[in-house]
Amino acid sequence: MRAIDSHIHCGIQDPYPPQHINAYLNAVGKAPIVGAVAFPPVMEVYDRYDSSFYDSDEWRRKRNDAHDYLLALASGMKNFRVIPFLFMWNDFAFERLDEGFRGVKWHRHPEEPMYDYKNPRCALAIDAIRCRDIPVVLEEEFHNTIRFIRDYARGVKVIIPHCGLLNGGYERVKAEGLWELPNVYADSALAPVSVIEDFLTTYGHEKLLFGSDFPFGDPQAELDKVMNLPLDDNAKEAVIKGNIIKLTGFTEDNFR
Ligand SMILES: [Zn+2]
Q1: Ligand 1 centroid vs 213 CA: distance in angstroms?
Q2: How much of the chain is in helix, strand and coil states, percent to nearest 5?
Q3: Is-above-0.85 flag for pTM?
Q4: Cis peptide leading into 17, omega within 30 of 0?
């Protein structure tokens, strides 16, 4: 059974830890992973250690280079398919979406510089995402996660990584009623098996995506974790490959 990893960080500018594509492929080893959704590393997008950081030309350059790298991988690799996502920051560079990005990464942790949700370009970016019907991997503080899903980006397909561990916690997202929304998905990266099992029994296998969070998670171990779940083959196939293929606009034929 082949798999696609729905969550890897991949870039050449931030070498700590190494997260270029060959580092990833080495970590995959003999595991049957044939493709991966890739985002630029955070430190190639904004300065996460400067809470007053907003943006600069230098960072815009860095960000563009990081995305160019992913696009080059997406078009230049044989035997492995990189599915590039655009990491949105405060320049809301949605104009780049049509260069081949299949989704968007939207990411910040508490204490990190904030998204300027009031910027008119933020609404334009969300409109651009909505009309392309592409998914957003959303890792934000709890209150911003709620606002994003219920208000700013209502109806947009959202993947909450780590089953919500870094969005306020699985249970809080559950209590808020977000998981049951038809447009909200979860990835399994670094989530405990007990949480994943609860998600699957409550919301079904069509809403869960296998992800590793490389370089912070190990693709082989994260795939084993999902393969060892008590699921039938159809459900397993959906979680490790089928669901992300559908969400990113591919077909099974693209991965044969
Ligand atoms: Zn991650």
Answers
A1: 5
A2: 45, 15, 40
A3: yes
A4: yes
Class of 3-255 in CATH:
alpha beta
3 state DSSP class of 56: coil
pLDDT of residue 99: 98
CA of 234 to the centre of ligand 1 (A): 26
Q: How confident is the model over 162-219, as pLDDT tens digits?
A: 999 999 999 999 999 999 999 999 999 999 999 999 999 999 999 999 999 999 999 9
Report in angstroms the alpha-carbon separations of 102 from 22, 24, 197, 245. 22, 20, 28, 10
Angle at 229 between CA 253 and CA 190, to 5 degrees: 85
- Measured in Å, residue 7 CA sits from the centre of ligand 1 at 6
For ligand 1, the distance from its centroid to the CA atom of residue 122, given in whole angstroms, is: 22
- In three state form, how does the secondary structure of 130-179 look? HHHCCCEEEECCHHHHHHHHHHHCCCCCEEEHHHHCCCCCHHHHHHCCCC
Q: 116-168: per-residue pLDDT in tens?
A: 999 999 999 999 999 999 999 999 999 999 999 999 999 999 999 999 999 99
Whole-number Å distance, alpha carbon 207 to ligand 1 midpoint, is 18
Question: In the beta sheet, which residues pair with residue 211?
Answer: none
